Amino acid sequence: MVPFLCNHPRPVRKQRGRRIRGSTALKIAPCVPASEGRCQGCGNRTRTSQGVALSLTQFSRPLLLFLSPPPPSPPFSYLEQARVAWERDRLHQLCLLLLIFSRFAHSTAHNSFKMDVVLEVCDTFLFDYMYQWVLPARPAPSGLTSQTFANGTSMSTWQYKPATEYLYLTPSQAAYGSLWARDNIWRQGVSLFLILWIFGFLVYFVFASLSYLFVFDKKTFEHPKFLKNQIWLEIKQANEAMPIMALCTAPLLVAEVRGYGFLYDTLDEAPWPWWNWFQIPLFLFFTDFGIYWIHRGLHHPWVYKHLHKPHHKWIMPTPFASHAFHPLDGYAQSLPYHIFPFIFPLQKVAYVALFVFINFWTIMIHDGEYIANNPIINGAACHSIHHLAFNYNYGQYFTLWDRIGGSYRAPEQEMFQKEVKMSEEHWKKEVEVMEQIQLEVEGEDDREYEPEMETKKRQ
Ligand SMILES: [Zn+2]
Ligand SMILES: [Zn+2]
Question: Where is the signal peptide (predicted)?
Fold first, then answer.
């Protein structure tokens, strides 16, 4: 018979016989065969789940176990199995708490405005005219006076309601002149696809160009691992990926603008007054957590070659590499950002501002300018290590999850000394490490590097 594993936290006694309270005093009871549903070790009923302080390590452990290779033989000890079961219970409880919390937050938030701000601005100035031209409204049925359809409003049940109290844009006649009214789901899908694509392209192109012109060190061209025509290849890959990413993301935005998300408008519509500022760190923490695990998953050998390798083509990335992904890779890594407003209330303008910030940050960590060696922030130095050494520093904004997941690699001090960082001696060291890891992760290197002659010509 397989003995039952007790997973109760068990109080430890002090020498004088007084019980110690608090989580430090709790200990996992060892495996004890159960009799009549009670644990012989602590006497409690089996499989209860009484409150125990939850640490981040405990929370991450099941995820680590999921992603780590199978345990060596002999399998886990009973004590280890008990610990895993206990931690899994805590993970379930945390997910449940998160769900209850988000439901409660939502029940107190008002979500009366269904249309998105950006969509309304684009409708007013561009899309109303575009849809009127592409899909004009049908002429008035015979027998009805032209007066009825003088402004076309009777053709559609749609009525203007501002997306935000902060902005009132009176719709022109063109808003009523298309077969697809503004609240038509297909029109919203097409419009949001175009917004994501064009807006994303503009943010990418403007910020990456500025970063390339004013921040990026052009000496990087001489690095032995700089590819032939790299900037052109980066821009090409980013522009091939962006429309497909926009197509995949548009349905999520349609759901959001149709009121399925928890987006709110004015500051007093927040569930609690403090939520208006608390949502920003929570958003960063949530997306960092999501991106870490998705990115780490993308490095799994089964997935890496198919989806994530295109982004790792760039050993020495330029700011234009920031969006140069396989489209599904880019989409997967953007998911936490779009999932957040389906779980937590989020102010609409903050949502747009965070979209710009995320794109800006992604460019910043690819610009090769190592500003400060901050132990908390996952900056350009940390992400450069990711491109050089592959299986380290998967995080986006913070080093927290890399530290918890055991994948953190701190940048060396010499990376912050510009002269040393750009010296041939340092590059040689970098290349040695990179080649060794690259061989392990990818096998034979199929990149085409900048020929030495061309490198010299640039000097
Ligand atoms: Zn990666
Ligand atoms: Zn990158």
Answer: none
- What residue spans of 111-220 are helical by DSSP H? 117-122, 128-134, 185-214
3-state secondary structure of 176: helix
Count Cα neighbours of 401 within 13 Å in the Cβ-side half-sphere: 23
Strand pairing report for 9-11 and 346-347: unpaired
Q: Is the pLDDT of residue 295 over 60?
A: yes
Alpha carbon distance 192, 189 (integer Å): 5
- Distance between Cα 307 and ligand 1 center (Å): 10
pLDDT digits (tens, 9 = 90+) for 192-214: 999 999 988 999 999 999 999 99
pTM over 0.85: no
Cβ count within 10 A of residue 262: 20
Quote the ligand 1 centre to 231 CA distance (angstroms): 19
What's the pLDDT score for residue 206? 93
Task: For residue 298, give both structure tokens.
Answer: 């993308």
Are 375 and 410 spatial neighbours (Cβ–Cβ below 8 Å)? Answer: yes
> Where do the domains of the chain lie?
9-108, 117-183, 186-458
Helix (H, G, I), strand (E, B) or coil at 232: helix
Distance in Å, CA 396 to ligand 2 centroid: 9
Q: What is the mean pLDDT of residues 432-449?
A: 84
Identify the nearest ligand to the CA of 384 by its number.
2
Q: How far is CA 407 from CA 239, 295, 296, 301, 389, in A?
A: 31, 12, 9, 16, 11
Say how many Å lie between the CA of residue 395 and the centre of ligand 1: 9
Query: Token digits for 343?
Result: 């779980």
Listed in sequence order, the residues at least 6 apart from 257 whose beta carbon sits closer than 8 Å to its beta carbon are: 114, 115, 116, 119, 188, 192
Number of the ligand closest to the Cα of 321: 2
Spatial separation of the C-alpha atoms in residues 284 and 274, rounded to whole Å:
16
Ligand nearest to the CA of 329: 1
